[in-house]
Amino acid sequence: MEKILDIIKDEHLTFEQRVYSLARAAENMVDVLHLDDKIKKWMDKDIICDLAEGNAPYKPRYVVPDYQKFMEQGSQFLELSKPKDIWEAVNNLLILYKHVPSVTMVPVYLGNIDTLLEPFVKDEKEDVAKEAIKLFLNHIDKTITDSFCHADIGPLETKAGKLILEVSKELQNPIPNITIKYDKDKTSEKFAIQSIKTALAVAKPSFANDEIFRKDFNGDYAIASCYNGLYIGGGSYTLVRGKLSKLALEAKSKEDFFDNLLPEFVDRITRFMDKKTNFIVEESAFFKSNFLVKEGLVSRDKFTGMFGIVGLAECVNELLSLENSNDRFGHSKKADKLGEEIIKKLSELVNEHTNRYCEISNGHYLLHAQVGIDSDSGDSPGCRIPIGEEPDIYEHIVQSAPFHKYFPSGIGDIFKFDEMAKRNPKAILDIINGGFKTGLRYFSLYEDCADVIRITGYLVKKSEMNKLDKGVAVLRDTTVLGQGGRDNSGVLNRKLRGKDEYENGSKNV
Amino acid sequence: MSEALVNKIIPFSNVDGPGNRTAVFLQGCNLNCLYCHNPETINICNNCGKCVTGCPADALEISNGRVIWDSDKCINCDTCIKVCPNSSTPKVKKYSVKEVMKIILEYKNFISGITFSGGECTLNHQFIVEVFKEVHKYGLTCFVDTNGFLDFENLPELVKNTDKFMLDIKAWDSSEHIKLTGKDNNIIKKNLEYLIKLDKIYEIRTVVVPEILDNENSVVNVSEILSGTEIQYKLIKFRKNGVRLNLINVDMATDSYMEKLKNRAIEIGVKKVVIT
Question: Is the ipTM, as predicted for this complex, more than 0.95?
Answer without folding.
Answer: no
